[in-house]
Amino acid sequence: MPLTISDDIQIEDWEISEVFVRSSGPGGQNVNKVSTAVELRFEAERSPNLPAPVKTRLRKLAGRRWTKEGALVLQVEDTRSQARNREIARERLIELIRAALVKPKRRIATKPTYGSKQRRIKAKKVRGDVKALRGKVTGEE
C-alpha cells in the first residue's frame, strides 16, 4: 500500500525497501534470536512523485542518511517489536518528506537603524576610553 505524504504526493511500494536486522537495544535473549531492527531505504532520487526542489531540500535535511546513490536510509531499533519499528520508520520518512515540502522563506536584508549605529559608536568610544586609561602610570618620586 502506498504511503500518502500530501494530497498530491504518494510514495509507491517499489520505492521503499525494508531489511530487518538484529537490534543492539534492550531485549535480553530476544536480541540474539529475532531481527527486530528495521533499515528502511527510500529511493528518493529515482522517485517520480517528488519534485526536484523537494528532493534537494530532502537531501539537505537527511544529511548523513543520504547515500551516494540518492537513497534515504532510516534505521530504527527503538522497540522490541519488528512491526512497531517498521511503523516508526515509515512515520519518520513521512515527517522528513513533509518537512522538505515546506519552502523556506527568503530572508529580506535590513539595514541597522540610526539609533543602533549611534549606540554602537558610543559603546566603542567608552571602551576605547577605558583602554586608554590602562597605560603605564608615570609616578613622581
Describe the structure.
The protein is an alpha+beta fold. The chain contains four helices and five strands. The chain has helices at residues 29-33, 52-62, 82-101, 114-132; strands at 3-4, 10-11, 16-21, 37-42, 72-76. Strands 3-4-5 form a three-stranded antiparallel β-sheet, with helices on one face. Strands 1-2 form a two-stranded antiparallel sheet. Strand 1 and strand 2 form a beta hairpin. It is elongated. The model has no long low-confidence stretch (mean pLDDT 86).
Layout: helices, strands, pairs:
Layout: E1 3-4, E2 10-11, E3 16-21, H1 29-33, E4 37-42, H2 52-62, E5 72-76, H3 82-101, H4 114-132
Antiparallel strand pairs: 1-2, 3-4, 4-5
Helix pairs in contact: 2-3
Tally of individual helices: 4
Q: Provide the helix percentage.
A: 25-40%
In the sheet with the most strands, the strands line up as: 3-4-5
Shape: elongated
- Count of DSSP E strands? 5
Spatial gap, N to C terminus: 95 Å
Query: What Rg, in angstroms, do the CA atoms define?
Result: 28 Å
Pick out the low-confidence regions. none
> Proportion of β residues?
5-15%
What structural class results from the helix and strand content? alpha+beta
Q: What value does the average pLDDT take?
A: 86
Order of helices and strands: EEEHEHEHH
The main pleated sheet reads as: 3 strands, antiparallel
